[in-house]
Amino acid sequence: MSSHSSVLLKEAIDELQIATDGVYIDATYGRGGHSKAILSKLGPKGKLIAIDKDPEAAEDASSIDDTRFHFFQSNFSDIPQILENIGLNKVNGILFDLGVSSPQLDNGQRGFSFLKNGPLDMRMNPSEGISLREWLLKADKNEIKIVLKEYGEERLASSIASEICLKRDICLLSNKEKMLSSTLELAKLIDDVYSRSRIRKKKGIHPATKSFQAFRIYLNNELDQLSEILEKLPLILVLGSRIVIISFHSLEDRLVKSSLRKNKTFVSRSDGMTSNQFAFLASMDSDNMKPKIYLKPLKKIKPSGTEIDRNKRSRSAILRVAEVISENVDSK
Ligand SMILES: C[S@@+](CC[C@H](N)C(=O)[O-])C[C@H]1O[C@@H](n2cnc3c(N)ncnc32)[C@H](O)[C@@H]1O
Hints:
Layout: H1 9-16, E1 23-26, H2 33-41, E2 47-52, H3 55-61, E3 69-73, H4 79-85, E4 91-97, H5 102-106, H6 132-138, H7 141-152, H8 157-173, H9 183-196, H10 209-219, H11 222-236, E5 237-247, H12 250-259, E6 265-267, H13 275-285, E7 292-301, H14 305-310, E8 318-326
Parallel strand pairs: 1-2, 1-4, 2-3, 4-5
Antiparallel strand pairs: 5-8, 6-7, 7-8
Helix pairs in contact: 1-2, 7-8, 7-10, 8-9, 11-12
The structure holds S-adenosylmethionine.
């Protein structure tokens, strides 16, 4: 069984500045590497709320026998609702370790990897939304091209989309159930498009890397869910809390960086107010609701050479830290 080697583990936990009796959120449980490290820093009164939308992550979390630990199989964009349901107003810190886990990539049956054969699925929660194959069979060429460009910055987006549609139309005409159904078949189709083009393949990088990333981001609605929760963070964090986010590609990091930027003001919700009541009031008259709060970006950390040597998957990681401050708290 595949395990997950947590990226920037020590750095992420140090930056959270865990108070022993605080309440923390691990928004991306995976295989619990960061969660277990947070639990080890908490005292008997501390609490950890962990989230993951993947049912296999949920199963892994069920093995943690600790009354301070509470797991929810859900999208992290639902965190405000989850907190409301369990009667919690605000927490003392939150961690996001974005993207996919090693077990998701290593199990060919999940359809995330261009190196392992399996069905074209790619859903983090396979009972939500549609599989990649279902989408490819109905999307039009332009839609496929836009997804490849927007979420993969793929230079051959147009040719890859044309080739997929050609294969797909043959498949639909000849009623061949099996066509365009496996990860290796799609990876080879993309590789062939590269071989026929004048663009050189990059050494050590599979030509399907960007396309697989693009399809995964699109199908799992990754950037929208991230942007939704980043906007809501000031509603659920107490002043002085830390936000720690590890991202793995430039699209994610750009979004994180712009959401954590200094001088972006938020109106804070009063204690006892539910997020729905707050959203309603804020939409009516945000100027009258004080105090205003800010996310103050603190630092950016990259993995050390030793970590990259030990865990190749960490090489593109960027950790960003921000703190929740109010307008009358001076910048340090
Ligand atoms: C890189 S792994 C986390 C690994 C974890 N920190 C560890 O040490 O084991 C990312 C996890 O986030 C989950 N995930 C990604 N986007 C999510 C979302 N919008 N809502 C909930 N879980 C999400 C994935 O299913 C995956 O298990």
